[in-house]
Amino acid sequence: MESTYKIDDHAQADGRRYVTEKHVVDGVTYTFEYLAGDDHDHTLTMQTRAERLAQELQRRAAAIAEGMNGEIPVTRLEFLRRLFPEERVACRELAKADPYAADFMGMLDATATVSLHDPDTKLGLQYMASQGCLTPERVEDIING
């Protein structure tokens, strides 16, 4: 961060002057303006504000990073649309005779949203692949969108 301040040449009626602080962070300029008397410690004010600004920017960056961390689940319909029609039909047909496939399809029927990186989702898709309803490559495509 690069911080500077400039004191206006013209005093106000009460003797105070406008002070303009500029703090440049990653090419973005943050400007603050205030009135202060001649005995004011502008350097201390600038340093304190720079520290507060740096802390706020770090908090924002952490919040954004956390917001990007994690997964947004998809609806059950969105999930099923990731499968090709023939894959969906094969999974449903297998579920009629295979208790493990029936369990996975039942879990899908019981939820409004699907977490793509949930272990049950991955295991269910991998099981369907092991039974020939999907290929291992398609499992990765479905999970990763």
Describe the 3D structure.
With 145 residues, the chain is an alpha+beta fold. The protein folds into two domains: 2-68; 74-144, no CATH class. The chain has helices at 42-68, 76-81, 85-97, 99-109, 119-130, 136-144, and strands at residues 2-7, 17-25, 28-36, 74-75, 113-114. The strands form two sheets. The chain has a three-stranded antiparallel β-sheet with strand order 1-2-3, covered by helices on one side. Strands 4-5 form a two-stranded antiparallel sheet. Strand 2 and strand 3 (28-36) form a beta hairpin. Helix 3 (85-97) packs across helix 4 (99-109), helix 4 packs across helix 5 (119-130) and helix 5 runs antiparallel to helix 6. The radius of gyration is 30 Å and the shape is rod-shaped. The model has no long low-confidence stretch (mean pLDDT 93).
Q: Which helices and strands, and how do they pair?
A:
Layout: E1 2-7, E2 17-25, E3 28-36, H1 42-68, E4 74-75, H2 76-81, H3 85-97, H4 99-109, E5 113-114, H5 119-130, H6 136-144
